[in-house]
Amino acid sequence: MSHTIYYRARNSALFCAGLNPTFLPLSPKSPIKYDKIRTMINKGRILRSLAGFYDVQTEDSQVYQTRARGNFRKKGMKPVVGDFVDFSAEENSEGYVLDIYERKNQLIRPSVANIDQAVVIMSTVSPDFSLNLLDRFLVFLEHKQIRPLIYISKLDLVEAGSFEQIKSDYEAIGYAIFFDEAELRDELKGKVTVFMGQTGVGKTTLLNKLAPEMELATGETSEKLGRGRHTTRHVELYPLMEGLIADTPGFSSLDYEVDNQPDLNEAFPEILRISHACKFRECSHTHEPDCAVKTALEAGEILASRYQNYTQLLSEINQTREHYVKQGKKQT
Ligand SMILES: Nc1nc2c(ncn2[C@@H]2O[C@H](COP(=O)(O)OP(=O)(O)OP(=O)(O)O)[C@@H](O)[C@H]2O)c(=O)[nH]1
Ligand SMILES: [Zn+2]
Prior knowledge:
It is a single chain. The protein is an alpha/beta fold. It has 3 domains: 3-102, CATH 2.40.50.140; 107-246, Rossmann fold; 258-331, Ribonucleotide Reductase Protein R1, domain 1 (Orthogonal Bundle), CATH 1.10.40.50. The chain has 10 helices and 13 strands. The radius of gyration is 24 Å and the shape is globular. The protein starts with a helix and ends with a helix. It binds guanosine-5'-triphosphate and zinc ion. Guanosine-5'-triphosphate binds at residues 153-154, 156-157, 197, 199-205, 218-220, 229, 249, 252. Guanosine-5'-triphosphate is lined by residues 153-154, 156-157, 197, 199-205, 218-220, 229, 249, 252. Monomer. Associates with 30S ribosomal subunit, binds 16S rRNA.
């Protein structure tokens, strides 16, 4: 590790410790005594994970290559891309991740932590557009406190204007929905964004439009080249529009633990807003009397498809719960 980097690391570490680094000799004219200060603890964010190495970026944009100390594995913890970590920067050697800060949220595929927002890509056709799948993605993200941004791909394959109604319906709920990657690009500023959608919707195509320099192979090109897709098992947060985007699109399927999810109301913003007017505080909006949500549904203030998907998910959650309860009884 070069001295310049070492100095910066030290500087940043002192910032983290709440000390003013200007009080210390940092110019090359007054070198640091390495035997006295051999290891500095630094704070940064993991941008890349590859073959047991983690590239950590500090606040002053320096990138350090680190490894995780063995004790992480013993604790069943593994640093992931997006993690904020304390790490050691040592003279003439790689650093070590020492501690992982509490995660705001985490996704398994791609393995990324502390995500601000996700672009849900839905194609008009091939695969066919599905409001049910869209709502499932939205519920998944709401529960993880990740802001959803909806992007509709393959609009060139349908009649102009076919998706305007869906756009205005979802905007009325409060979701941002995009037909155009230029508009979407503006939303990436200063945020950590992941891309998700079924296989073939055009995730890679969109990523390539947003960041051509990443040169990701789309279905078409990788078939032409005769090699499998996503062969590299690495995840990287890629700087774009003063933000970071995950270069590995994910989520062909949504397998998540419904049982651990909080109230389904929370995942349907328009239902949540109205539910405060229901007679019963615990109203499920299915069979209870004086349900404000059902009244709103009848008045056309809540989309029929949204209500239908809500009740479908609710019964799936209840079935899963019953299943677990029965299993639990059998075991005891
Ligand atoms: N006509 C049209 N085709 C598109 C569009 N976007 C993507 N495609 C095509 O759809 C196919 C799948 O696109 P990809 O970008 O590989 O899709 P993906 O979501 O990354 O797919 P997976 O890697 O399987 O998850 C390719 O043949 C693309 O050329 C679009 O806006 N219009
Ligand atoms: Zn109700």
